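Quick one, T. Sequence first:
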Amino acid sequence: MNPTLRDLSIEQRIRLVEELWDSIAADQAALPLTDEQRAELDRRLDTFEADGDLGRPAADVLAGIRKRL
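Structure tokens:
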């Protein structure tokens, strides 16, 4: 019988997905942006710069989430 992904534990499958995602992230240059993606990123950056709101520090956001758990 050939093993399948279902034969792995959930923990093993999660680790496999994390490793796969990390390998994709390491090769981001292999996936160039399309003109549409570049235009959308420029639009979002312009909106962020015009707004001027830097948001909240990540530590504050995480602390708020932890309080609600």
